[in-house]
Amino acid sequence: MEEFSDLVMKTSMEKESSIVVGLDPIISNFPKNLQGNDNICKTIYNFNKLVIDVIHPFVVAIKPQLAYYEVYGSKGILALEKTIKYARSKGLIIINDAKRGDIGSTAEAYSEAFLGESSLSGHAVTVNPFLGSDGIVPFLNKSIDSSKGLFVLLKTSNPSSSELQDLTLYNGNKFYMYLASLLKGMSTSLGTYGFSNLGAVVGATYPEQSKILREYLPNTLFLVPGYGEQGGKLTELEPFFNKNGYGSLISSSRSILYSYIKEEPESWGDLKMSQLKEIIEAACIQFKEDINRIR
């Protein structure tokens, strides 16, 4: 089975892209003609399917945020399962943004759900490292067995991340650098393109820290949220990539999914499907071109 890191690199080179689109369904943001169904599963899936049909030629991966599906219970989970299956049929990599973190048999169950053979399983999952290596190793072991990937939260994009992640330790290092050293020691064997299946989440809102982390973790794939809506600037993304312009996946969610709201603030609720697709496609292509100019 092809290693996750190799799949990411091969897809990135084939599509000349390093972008990820987060699938965060907010039904109140759907146009009226997509809201008119009482079946929540069908409503979410139809919107996701429309988006996937438009973006799949331009993006490396989709990143479903699990909370937006779990909030609807079993109907939301069914929509996610159908979305994952459809995204696979379009050749997309699926990164489940689950941020799971536990130990022992519970962590093993989570890793089986998201990296095994279940209907929720994608190609990679995000992992919260707060419980230490005990909370990472079960996911890492499963990723090795299945040739899949995981992205451990390292320096996240939210403003309050500094409350914990920037704490200064007894030796003068920041906590996020200690965590980086932990990940470096746990990194799996490198794939054909020189990257490990053990990746890290590094926020676009912290370019200076990213420069240090990229130098320290040259063989680590970065999943980079926080660009655009959260304040991450295009001009500050260069340090996230290696000298060849690879190594990071830049994520955008609402600025792509709901680009039509900004484009047509007065009439977006009544847009036709063809108009909707045209606006989302234009936003996705612009996102890809912007990132390619930097990398």
From TrEMBL:
Source organism superkingdom: Bacteria
InterPro entries reported in the protein's UniProt record: Aldolase_TIM, OMPdecase_AS, OMPdecase_type-2, OMPdeCOase_dom, RibuloseP-bd_barrel
Active site: 99 (proton donor)
Known EC number: 4.1.1.23
SUPFAM superfamilies for this protein: Ribulose-phoshate binding barrel (SSF51366)
Keywords: Decarboxylase, Lyase, Pyrimidine biosynthesis
The keyword DNA-binding belongs to this UniProt entry's keyword annotation: no
Pathway info: Pyrimidine metabolism; UMP biosynthesis via de novo pathway; UMP from orotate: step 2/2
MF (Gene Ontology): orotidine-5'-phosphate decarboxylase activity
PROSITE patterns: OMPDECASE (PS00156)
Orotidine 5'-phosphate decarboxylase domain mapped to chain residues: 18-266
Pfam families listed in its UniProt record: OMPdecase (PF00215)
Catalytic reactions of this protein: orotidine 5'-phosphate + H(+) = UMP + CO2
Stated family: Belongs to the OMP decarboxylase family. Type 2 subfamily.
Matching PANTHER family: OROTIDINE 5'-PHOSPHATE DECARBOXYLASE (PTHR43375:SF1)
Full protein name: Orotidine 5'-phosphate decarboxylase
